[in-house]
Specification:
In chain A, α2 packs across α10, α5 runs parallel beside α6 and α13 packs antiparallel against α14. Helix content of chain A is about 45%, strand content about 15%. Chain A has 14 helices and 14 strands.
């Protein structure tokens, strides 16, 4: 059976990238790797839209999230965490594992935070060292207004730390221009790579906190990694094959051009939303982002049955996590994805709903998406 | 120019493994991945020669080393660390980063620890919680007698934590039989994979320490990872492509058979040693291991010039690290390597020494190695 991957990470990998990674491996202390690594460093700064070095770790994105905590904070520090889904909750879990005091700004699943709630939290606790937010909350499909949050945090002594794991390369996040202080990303989303690389970029304001941060760390020590990367090296053995793939995927992204990449993701997201809504289904997120579309399972149908129906037709999508399990399903459209992939997903959705006895007029979802994709 | 990789990690990757990793990526929450992952878990236990699950992390080996520390210890705990090179020193650095008190057992570079020195350290400090050792100290080429150390540690309440990053799959390390309590490994050595996977296997004695360990952790939380792996999953997104490659490389290793794999590495190491000695060069390690051969640069020749000479002939070997820089060079022979690779290295060594004005009779090193390899 021909297979399609439309889940929110890992995402499909372009053949150019797969082939680059299938070359015989090279050693990381060679002129060949060093030339490649210099390209990667330059292109990463373009992707992150920042002037400082982007640190690269052999890890899942969660590793860089932990790094953002342990390199800027000390036990007992007060932080504000926006929690609107599984990944916002992860920020709080990491902070709590290290004895950092968390003032949560809780947002119901599917909603996006009101920036005024962040401002209120900052006012109620004047000693806040950092605010943690999630740009694209993958578990709910919601986008949070990082630009507005950054404008608020910038007026305080706190820094803003953003999980951009499923937003970097999907939606515009001009880190330096907006004043986000740490942006964390992972390889297996819009970067079109396998999982295994995590990234963190720090503003000068964030770097200023690092020397005073007392939390213990070793592998995710940003200071050691910055010292190494400034010599065009890594503190520990880098995930060489993934970095080789990264050079190719960054080339593809920059050749398309960031504004075009963002416009494509926006178009694919709008087409997907229009398609599922034309089939009478409801979106789960009030302000859906462009990485993946979370859809409420229609009454009487278990979300898992829809995921299974897709799988039986060769397509991997995702269900709901935690308390959203069974209630939603999620179709991703980020990275190496185009309009025909969205139409494939919507066609399958029509089939699966019909299989499950839900009333469907074939072509309704597809047509609604076509109208958006043709432009 | 045709290229050869004979450095101590990354090591060459078999084409079967490269091609497996070049397949379109699959999602980690699918029946297909779960079947593959079950195979990997079973085969890893065979490779580690242990009954408990082997935990897998998306990280360099150093990440699993940190995990071994933070999951078994608390700040202020007393440990003994065998330091005989860069990697023994790393154990101490990690412990110190977390406020663990280190009693070092220092061994001059190139020497192997006298197990009696470990026994003496344990006697001098009765509250020792853990002993840290390095099976194969890659920076010096020395092997340490883990079996003897384990026999000593087993008579005390301490656990033995072993860095087997360049020994697993090279030299026999029957973890359960010897009583090693934690064995840490990495993908880019004898496992014949790119860097990016780290492994840790724990004995029941080691697991018994985990609930009481107060050091903070999140990404390298062994309890969370064990809970996930027992459900055939990973706590965070696994490095899918590397796990796919791992299934192939484990198949290759187990098809060759562990005793044959160890015998091959022993033969290659003996051939390399015989070859360099026949050229009048001296080994750096008193008790050299089978992963890589560290050789003293001959008087008047800088070690870096030898590494550079190899590079100009298409071969990547390694120089010395830290204070050994310039004084030694290291030829690795682990993983996807056979006798012809060793002969290639020795041929190149003859060329390079001659280029650098060192007296060489062509064929002397090769012949000495051939005598060992023919058997």
């Amino acid at each position: 059976m021909k297979r399609y991957l439309l889940a929110p990470g890992p995402t499909p990998i372009p053949p150019e990238v797969l082939l680059a990674m299938a070359q015989p491996i090279i050693h990381h202390r060679t002129p060949e790797y060093e030339a490649l690594f210099a390209d990667v460093r330059r292109d990463l700064r373009l992707l992150f839209q920042c002037k400082n070095e982007v640190l690269i770790f052999a890890a899942s994105g969660t590793g860089a999230m932990e790094g953002a905590v342990v390199n800027t904070l000390s036990a007992g520090d007060q932080v504000v965490v926006v929690r609107g889904g599984k990944f916002g909750e992860r920020w709080a879990e990491i902070c709590e594992a290290y004895g950092v005091r968390v003032l949560p700004v809780d947002v119901p699943y599917g909603k996006s935070v009101d920036p005024a709630a962040v401002a209120a939290a900052l006012k109620s606790e004047p000693a806040v060292k950092a605010v943690f937010a999630t740009h694209s909350e993958t578990s709910t499909g919601a986008v949070h207004d990082v630009q507005a949050i950054a404008a608020i945090v910038r007026e305080t002594p706190a820094i803003l730390i953003v999980d951009a794991i499923t937003s970097l390369g999907v939606m515009d996040l001009p880190m330096d221009a907006w004043g986000a202080d740490i942006v964390v990303a992972g390889s297996q989303k819009a970067m079109m790579l396998p999982p295994g690389l995590a990234f963190a970029a720090l503003s000068d304001r964030a770097w200023a906190l690092v020397p005073g941060a007392r939390l213990p760390k070793y592998y995710f020590n940003f200071t050691a990694e910055r010292k190494a990367i400034e010599k065009n090296q890594s503190a520990y053995t880098p995930a060489v094959s993934l970095v080789v793939g990264l050079r190719e995927s960054l080339r593809l992204i920059l050749a398309e051009g960031l504004p075009n990449v963002f416009a494509r993701h926006d178009r694919l997201a709008r087409a997907t939303r229009a398609g599922v809504q034309a089939l009478g289904l409801e979106l789960f997120a009030e302000h859906p982002g462009c990485a993946c579309t979370a859809v409420k399972a229609p009454a009487g149908i278990e979300g898992g049955a829809i995921v299974k129906g897709f799988r039986q037709r060769g397509i991997t999508i995702a269900g709901g996590q935690g308390s959203m399990r069974g209630k939603i399903f999620r179709i991703a459209h980020m990275g190496y994805v185009d309009g025909f992939d969205v139409l494939t997903a919507l066609t399958a959705l029509e089939f699966v709903l019909a299989d499950l006895g839900h009333p469907v007029t074939f072509g309704e979802g597809i047509r609604a998406a076509q109208r958006i994709l043709q432009k």
